[in-house]
Amino acid sequence: MDRHILNLVASEICRDAGEIKTFLKSTFTGRTLWNTEMTDADYDKVIEETIALSVKWGLIEKTAKDRLIPTPLGKNTAAKGIALETAVFFLEFLNNADPRNVSDFEILMLLAMSHDAIPVYIPLKRNERGQGGYLYELKQAIHDSMEETKPVFESVWKISGMLSQEKERAVKKALMMNRWISNAETKEIENSYEVFSGAIKRVGEDFSWLAETLASLAKEIRWDQRVIVRISNLSQRLVYGVTEKGLALSQIRLRGLGRTYINRLIAEGYDTPEAVAELPVEELERLLPKHLAERLYCCSELARKNLEAEGLGARAEVVGDVMYDLFLALRPLFRPEEMGPRFGVTHRPYVLATLHRDFNVDARAPLAEILKGFGALREAYDLDVVLPVHPRTRQRLKDFALEELTAGLLLVEPLGYLELMG
């Protein structure tokens, strides 16, 4: 229920404990489940405990009149969809750790021990538990990286020195992900942890979300930008199962170019897309399956024509654009007739703009120039500019004192895909 409470405050739907209670009780889940299991006193207790914890960790501010105001950190937490317990766990780590001395394995252990990692299932057989499990491998990994005194690792142990089943599973996930982002062979990882590659990749994707959340929280509390970038990169590496050097190659959208072939290219010294692009077909065929080496996959006919102009038309194949496919699939659900009236733009032309990329909003100069451009567009063509504002962008407008440049623009809350396309 804590996620719902924080979301209600972050979205400013509810401004005090009473409004939260009324809203929760009126929902479908409230009427069919919570109201049958909880008394008014139970509701009050959960809501007050959640508010108190959120206030303690800076997610919510409480006024003298008990009004609840979401902080940028609280909005960020709500937007990521993590449990309050996970947010507190991450913030406690961020507030106490030395950013200059944080390792990838330490972060992986942190993610694995979080509340939101518990539902990320992997099997844990009887022979993998206790002394026959991952106790020795964990100790060895910590010893090799000389991180025995770090709180994240100390928190794993019980007084007896043994691991609970829940912690054993967390340790297995962390060790497996540590190998996943190394140059270890996929088959070797499968055999070591008795988990198939598809399940390993799924764990990597779930951990990627948690790592990105950690990076986002670190940014809110002003951690060193270089460390934040490294955590964000770790998030991407977890998706593709690659080393730091392999991250650039993982961005090549080539069907079938997985971690095994990426590691093979890196081992040969080809660690950038540019280096791979310059390789002759014969060398590519030596390193990659023939169908990968010979074909150039592109998302549109225009891209194919560009390759044709470079003399590569015979190797080009249009495989489609997944975003355009998504657009076509969901197009019947768009409701443009509802969106105009919602924002009061039915009587004159308007444009919809989005502004959320870090390189556009995290520095004053580009953000100011873009906003000036929106204003000039509005004046030159006598139209409205509807601008959904992400919480981070709204905070940057305040930080950089640029709010006056938004005068005349229609600032609205962030929109979902169907609303945005409508």
Please work out how many helical segments DSSP would assign: 25
Overall mean pLDDT stands at 85
Strand order of the largest sheet: 5-6-7
Q: Show unreliable segments.
A: none
Radius of gyration: 25 Å
Sheet/helix structural class: mainly alpha
Give the amount of beta strand, in percent.
5-15%
Cα shape = globular
Please bin the fraction of helical residues.
55-70%
Q: Tally of extended strands?
A: 7
Terminal CA distance reads 31 Å
Major sheet:
3 strands, parallel
Features of this protein?
25 helices, mainly alpha, three-stranded parallel sheet, about 425 residues, two-stranded antiparallel ribbon, single chain
Description:
- With 422 residues, this protein is mainly alpha-helical.
- The chain has helices at residues 2-10, 17-26, 28-37, 40-56, 72-80, 84-96, 104-113, 135-144, 151-154, 165-180, 186-193, 197-220, 225-240, 247-250, 259-267, 273-277, 281-287, 290-294, 301-309, 322-330, 336-343, 358-361, 364-381, 391-399, 417-421; strands at residues 60-62, 68-70, 296-298, 316-318, 350-352, 384-388, 410-412.
- A 3-stranded parallel beta sheet has the order 5-6-7, with helices on one face.
- Helix 24 links the parallel strand 6 and strand 7.
- Helix 10 (165-180) crosses helix 12 (197-220).
Secondary structure: elements and pairs:
Elements: H1 2-10, H2 17-26, H3 28-37, H4 40-56, E1 60-62, E2 68-70, H5 72-80, H6 84-96, H7 104-113, H8 135-144, H9 151-154, H10 165-180, H11 186-193, H12 197-220, H13 225-240, H14 247-250, H15 259-267, H16 273-277, H17 281-287, H18 290-294, E3 296-298, H19 301-309, E4 316-318, H20 322-330, H21 336-343, E5 350-352, H22 358-361, H23 364-381, E6 384-388, H24 391-399, E7 410-412, H25 417-421
Parallel strand pairs: 3-4, 5-6, 6-7
Antiparallel strand pairs: 1-2
Helix pairs in contact: 1-5, 5-12, 7-10, 10-12, 12-13
